[in-house]
Design goal:
The complex is a heterodimer. Chain A is an all-alpha fold. Chain A has helices spanning 2-20, 27-49, 85-104, 113-132, 136-145, 147-157, 167-200, 207-212, 217-234, 243-250, 253-278, 280-305, 311-330, 335-366, 384-395, 402-415, 419-443, 459-477, 480-498, and strands at residues 65-72, 77-83. The radius of gyration of chain A is 22 Å and the shape is globular. Classes of the chains: A mainly alpha, B mainly alpha.
Chain lengths: 504, 622
């Protein structure tokens, strides 16, 4: 019974935030914080009590908890939730970043506070649903649910950019991209259900049932592409990344934190949970293309990030580059690389969240995100540059941070099967250093633009950043904590990918 | 020996404390910063005593399992053997002296630049020592890589310590990016080793290499080449050498510790550690020595035409590491490590003394604005004479003589006559540029206000490190024999002892002749040199040497400019612009349709009639 609560708490908490908004300014923030705290405690409790040891790989994922009630029985749709190591990693991550998203809006958002937190909570609720649902229709439902509050968050609380973009425009672009690709996924889900019906005479959207009877041939390929494109937009995979830099640049800090930290990861999760296991043969055929797209993403994102002048756009473009590694890992057919991808997703969530929070804090102090107007901030903003340094170094993959573990496990894992892909991808590490250090150089080094000291970090700000730094170091020095949790799930994915016959 | 981990723990704790309590008083910061390295050095001493008492058996400490996925097992394991103990001694011993000196230097240096934090400096320095120790103690390649990248990060941070200076920031940037290129090669080398051996454990690789790797095959060569790529990046050897001279933008103790004594020799350590792989790859093996030779000559010529005291020393460092690579290339691993240690002594001495000179001369670094400092700062003069003599390997009394001549002798004895001759030529250059610097700085008349009013530094934190290093730079230092017999193969020499002595005499003569030429050219009025530099060809040549053979300009054209051009093309995301076609089409349709809705009855009627005509016509035709 614990699984539905993971989804219900954020939704109920969101409504409470909205009501609390009528009672006082500070109240919704505390309600939201308590809500996220509850979710996080619950997820840690699941971690502490669950059994995530590596067992035998069968035709069905080894769920630690399941929950199922009927929903629309006519079409074989049930409210079916389940959790395994991979979902749990993502859920813990969502809880932690949810807390940070509330924290970083504390002084930034002053307008319609109740409504803002309603949206924030519902994003998390939707994300929880995505990570737990194993009925394909239910999955699609939550996939769409998380979109709407995100749209509102950007459109209503977004910033105008210095280059003339408006939040509404960015939000609409985000909405159209994800909505259009979501539609493709819906078609694929329906196609899959019908194909399954013609094969077996049972109309169902249940993951396990669909898993057992893979669809072959061209139809399978088309259906697989429907899933892939939907996930590729969210990850994002070049050339479907157009919405990302603008949305990040315009979104409020909390929006960026959620977007980079969790929403992008739903895409990788979707590929690992659905695209690969449902269509193992087609995915294997498609793997070279996907890896090539990953390489293009690594380089295109890095080159795009380098000349940006808006600090948030730079970080956003760097995400494109990092997700290229994740994409390569997913299609590499190596458990080691997949494990690396999981660590990389977790670490990237922390480092990108850190960089976005810092950008927000700089904006609160300087009222600009244009790096040409920054410069020389070392020594002017207290401990902030020190924290920024850690996140920048994490993002370029310095050992000791989880990003290093993630990237290198991906490269080690993929090397045996696709050495050239790995060699080319390694070149991206140099470009990552170039854009990351250019960020340091433009913002923190050089002669200060003004002599006046800016306010240093408060207790709330320091503790948020310190939490992220500790999280990055823990994943860097003790990655086994994450690796042990996701081992079973990742082994299953690789095994099914390499021997589709295991599923029958 | 279970306390091995303490060696790395002290500097780490120091760094963390200094990072968290940024505003602590200067004295406390100095105590923590210097004390942590001191404790580390004491631990090393205890370890050394136990190690020698234990018949030099290697000791491995497993701290925790770092990564374990299926067959991929990497532990956080330290290994203490003769090689890592030697480097441990250099890092903590010389490191402690440099930290002690730095506590004086930074206090003086920050007197008029109050907004740079004293704690920040020592935090980075302690973090550096931690990383460097992990680099040499790491029992597997991945852990070594953690230290490897860590020292690169600290080097970046310390070069850019004076963050207000545009030039410092760019020098730091350059150093990081160029060494990162080398690091990527090293990473690829690790991937190659992983797929061939199925482990990253260095000892297993060494033990199994002769069976796993076939001698001279492409795969073996590429593996060795990738490791070499990492080594040349970190050790500033051709073709990734261009960052080191600019790295002198950092505070002088940093140059002494990172860019002379420890980090830049990491490449030498890496090759010595994995020498088995290189011996199976004849082409790359040969390349190591050749790159070393080329670098030592290029750096030697470059050092002749520098005006900044620290840049002279930087090029001499490059050149001396060139000797170490040369030694590795001729399989004289013991000699390479011995020279690494001796070089750490005398180059740290020279850098610290130059720091003392710079402070005495009120932050003047141009040697042509010094002059006549001999009497004003006798201690620094003594340091330069002893250190310079060791650098030039003057016979019998200096430590450098014993280490460098061993390299030259072994390269000759192992049949690498070309490398030997080149090394000899390099020795000649070395003693010219070293004594050129000494004569210009300390002899003659004061050339500027700053040198006229030079004041002698005071304090034990200033004197003690210099005095200890002076002693270590003389023949006394050469008595320290690194315990390498269990780790590195001995070089077998068949040539006679008499030949060795005659060669030693020859190289001594070369060094002394170089000294004489420097005296003739740079003592007194220097008319000959002035005339030479003022002539057209002379000026061009000077420019060429001064820019270190114009590598920067070449790399700028080859890599920097093209990348900037590509980046400029992507200032606006063109894929996104392409996707903009869709909304553009929609808008076009929208404007066409809304143009037709103009509210005029006439045009509606006309359209209606036109439409009806088209339909009727279509019906008639079909």
């Amino acid at each position: 019974m614990i699984l539905p609560w993971l989804i219900l708490i954020p939704f109920i908490g969101g409504l409470l935030c909205w009501l609390a908004g009528y009672m006082g300014h500070a109240l919704p923030r505390y309600v939201a914080l308590v809500t996220m705290g509850l979710v996080t405690v619950l997820s840690f409790w699941l971690w502490a009590t669950g059994d995530f040891q590596l067992g035998a790989v069968g035709a069905v994922p080894a769920w630690t908890h399941e929950f199922q009630v009927g929903w629309i029985e006519r079409f074989g749709i049930t409210f079916h939730l389940a959790i395994d190591g991979l979902s749990l990693v993502m859920i813990i991550l969502s809880g932690l970043l949810g807390i940070l998203a509330v924290g970083c809006s504390w002084s930034e958002v002053t307008d319609r506070i109740g409504l803002f937190h309603l949206n924030l909570m519902w994003i998390i609720g939707g994300v929880m649903g995505v990570f737990l649902a194993i009925d394909l229709f239910l999955f699609f439902f939550f996939w769409e649910v998380m979109l709407v509050p995100m749209f509102l968050l950007v459109a209503l609380w977004g910033h105008h950019s210095d280059e003339g973009g408006s939040p509404a425009k960015a939000a609409i672009k985000f909405f159209i991209y994800t909505q259009a690709s979501g539609l493709l996924m819906l078609l694929s889900i329906l196609g899959l259900a019908f194909a399954h019906y013609y094969q077996t005479g049972v109309f169902t959207f249940d993951y396990q049932a669909l898993l057992d009877s893979p669809i072959g041939g061209t139809l399978g390929m088309v259906l697989m592409l429907g899933f892939f494109i939907a996930f590729a937009v969210k990850l994002p995979v070049v050339p479907l990344h157009g919405w990302l830099p603008g949305t990040h640049a315009q979104a409020p800090t909390a929006g960026s934190v959620d977007l980079a930290g969790i929403l992008l990861k739903t895409a990788a999760y979707g590929m690992l949970r659905f695209a690969l296991p449902l269509f193992p043969e087609q995915s294997a055929l498609f793997a070279p293309v996907a890896m090539a797209l990953g390489l293009i993403g690594i380089y295109y994102g890095a080159v795009l990030a380098f000349p940006q002048t808006d600090i948030k756009r730079l970080v956003a473009c760097s995400s494109i580059s990092h997700m290229g590694f994740v994409l390569i890992a997913i299609y590499s057919g190596s458990t080691l690389a997949l494990q690396g991808a999981v660590v990389l997703m977790v670490a990237h969530a922390f480092s990108a969240a850190g960089l976005f929070i810092i950008s927000g804090q700089l904006y609160e102090r300087l009222h600009t995100r244009d790096m040409r107007q920054m410069g020389g901030l070392f020594g002017r903003t207290g401990a902030l540059p020190g924290f920024a340094l850690v996140f920048v170094m994490a993002s370029l993959g310095i050992p000791g941070t989880g990003n290093f573990i993630g990237e290198f496990l991906v490269l080690f894992g993929a090397f045996e099967e696709s050495p050239w892909v790995v060699v080319i991808a390694s070149g991206g590490l140099v470009l990552a250093a170039v854009y990351s250090l250019v960020l340091m150089l433009r913002v923190y080094y050089g002669a200060p633009k003004s002599k006046t000291a800016l306010p240093g970090l408060g207790v709330r700000e320091t503790s948020m950043l310190a939490l992220l730094v500790v999280a990055l170091l823990i994943t860097g020095f003790f990655p086994q904590l994450v690796l042990n949790l996701s081992l079973q799930s990742m082994t299953e994915v690789t095994q099914w990918f390499l021997n589709p016959s295991l599923l029958q | 020996m279970n306390y091995l981990f303490l060696v790395t723990l002290f500097p780490l704790i120091g760094a963390v404390l200094l990072a968290i309590f940024r505003r602590m008083p200067v004295n406390l910061a100095a105590t923590i910063g210097v004390g942590s390295i001191g404790l580390s050095a004491l631990t090393t001493l205890a370890l050394a005593l136990q190690f020698f008492g234990n018949d030099q058996t290697a000791f491995v400490q497993h701290l925790w399992t770092w990564i374990s996925v299926e067959a991929f097992e990497v532990g956080f394991d330290y290994r203490l053997d003769g090689l890592s103990l030697t480097l441990l001694g250099v890092i903590t011993g010389v490191g402690f002296l440099i930290h002690l000196f730095a506590s004086w230097y930074m206090r003086e240096d920050l007197k008029d630049q109050v907004d740079y934090l004293y704690t920040r400096f020592f935090c980075y320095m302690n973090l550096f020592v931690f990383s460097m120790l992990v680099l040499v103690l790491g029992n597997n390649l991945l852990l070594m890589f953690l230290g490897w990248e860590g020292v690169g990060l600290c080097s970046y941070l310390l070069i850019g310590y004076y963050y207000r200076g545009e030039a410092n920031a760019w020098a730091a940037f350059k150093a990081f990016i160029i060494t990162r290129v080398g690091d990527v090669f090293l990473a690829i080398g690790m991937f190659l080793i992983w797929i061939q051996f199925g482990t990253l454990d260095i000892q297993t690789v060494i033990a199994q290499a002769p069976e796993v790797m076939a001698e001279g095959t492409l795969l073996t060569e590429v593996t060795a080449l990738m490791l070499l790529g990492g080594a040349v990046g970190k050790s500033a050897q051709l073709p990734l050498q261009t960052w080191l001279a600019d790295a002198m933008a950092g505070p002088t103790p940093v140059s002494a510790l990172i860019h002379a004594a420890t980090m830049v020799t990491a490449g030498v350590y890496l090759i010595a550690r994995t020498h088995v792989v290189f011996e199976l790859a004849p082409f790359t093996d040969e390349l190591v020595g050749v790159l070393g030779l080329l670098t030592l000559l290029i750096a030697g010529f470059s050092a002749l035409a520098q005006t900044d005291i620290k840049r002279v020393l930087a090029y001499s460092t490059m050149s001396q590491i060139g000797y170490m690579f040369l030694a590795l290339g001729v399989h004289a691993y013991g000699a390479a490590i011995f020279h690494l240690m001796i070089h750490a002594f005398f180059k740290a001495l020279l850098f610290l003394a130059s720091g003392s000179v710079i402070i005495s001369c009120h932050h003047e670094q141009n040697i042509f604005k010094m002059g006549g400092l001999r009497k004003k700062i006798p201690l620094a003069y003594a340091c330069f004479v002893v250190g310079g003599a060791a650098l030039s390997a003057l016979p019998i009394v200096t430590s450098g003589f014993y280490s460098k001549d061993e390299i030259l002798w072994l390269s000759f004895a192992n049949g690498h006559t070309v490398l030997w001759l080149g090394g000899l030529a390099g020795a000649f250059l070395t003693s010219i540029y070293t004594f050129r610097m000494i004569f210009i700085v300390f002899h003659g008349k004061p050339a500027s206000h700053a040198s006229e009013h030079a004041h002698a530094p005071q304090g034990i934190a200033h004197h003690l490190p210099l005095l200890v290093l002076i002693v270590l730079s003389t023949f006394v230092g050469a008595f320290i024999t690194p315990p390498l017999s269990n780790v590195l193969p001995e070089t077998e020499v068949t040539a006679s002892h008499a030949l060795q002595i005659s060669l030693e005499v020859l190289s001594s003569v070369v060094a002394i002749v170089g000294l004489g030429i420097a005296a003739a050219l740079f003592l007194g009025r220097r008319r000959f040199v002035k005339g030479l530099v003022e002539s057209d060809e002379g000026a061009k040549l000077w420019q060429f040497f001064n820019s270190a053979f114009a590598f920067d300009a070449i790399y700028d054209r080859l890599f920097v400019k093209p990348y900037l051009a590509i980046a400029r093309l992507h200032r606006y995301d063109w894929i996104d612009k392409l996707a903009g076609i869709f909304p553009g089409l929609v808008k076009l349709g929208n404007s066409a349709m809304s143009a037709s809705q103009n509210g005029q009855l006439r045009s509606y009627a006309a359209t209606f009639v036109l439409g009806a005509l088209v339909i009727v016509a279509a019906l008639l035709v079909s």
